[in-house]
Write a structure and sequence with these properties.
Length: 170
């Protein structure tokens, strides 16, 4: 079976997005592999803090399940962020599952919104350039990973903040 790729996708009804695939092959054979890379610019607002770098790849299979056409696969790519402590540029690979279901009597399945959600879900809450990042000096803003500015190191914040008041002994 020939996968639907960027070349094959060009032959499908793509009036809305490059992630819109005809269900004709699924109707004939019961399934259609999908393997396509799309420009990251399509998802420019999906990440709150980072920016996609390179293309977004979508791989999976569109199958007929009862009266539905179901896509099961994953989206992957690379994103650039700033370290939460020292603000250095950090690039990370990401990979998220994607599933979509439409009635099988529709002419096409559009994966754009589902892939956009996968991109958004791939964003980490915090990004660190390395596990032992020392961050920026609070006095002179020097990157403590690169230089020792001589200023006193602030005490690190507690990893578990106290949620209840302390009881006084006595």
């Amino acid at each position: 079976m020939i996968p639907i790729s960027a070349t094959h996708a060009a032959n499908h009804d793509m009036s809305d997005t490059p992630l819109r695939f005809s269900l004709a092959l699924v109707e004939k054979t019961g399934q259609a592999p999908v393997d396509v890379a799309v420009p990251a610019e399509l998802f420019s607002g999906a990440l709150a803090e980072g920016k996609l770098a390179g293309q977004v790849r979508v791989e999976g299979v569109i199958s007929r399940v009862d009266d539905d056409a179901v896509f099961e696969g994953e989206a992957s790519g690379r994103a650039a962020y700033e370290c939460s402590l020292c603000l250095a540029r950090v690039e990370r690979d990401w990979r998220e599952p994607v599933t979509a279901t439409v009635p099988a009597d529709r002419p096409a399945i559009d994966l754009f919104d589902d892939v956009r959600q996968a991109v958004a879900l791939s964003e980490p809450m915090k990004v660190f350039c390395r596990t032992d990042c020392r961050g920026l000096c609070s006095v002179c803003r020097a990157d403590r990973n690169k230089t020792d500015c001589g200023h006193a190191v602030d005490a690190p914040p507690s990893s578990r903040p106290r949620l209840t008041p302390r009881r006084h002994k006595g």
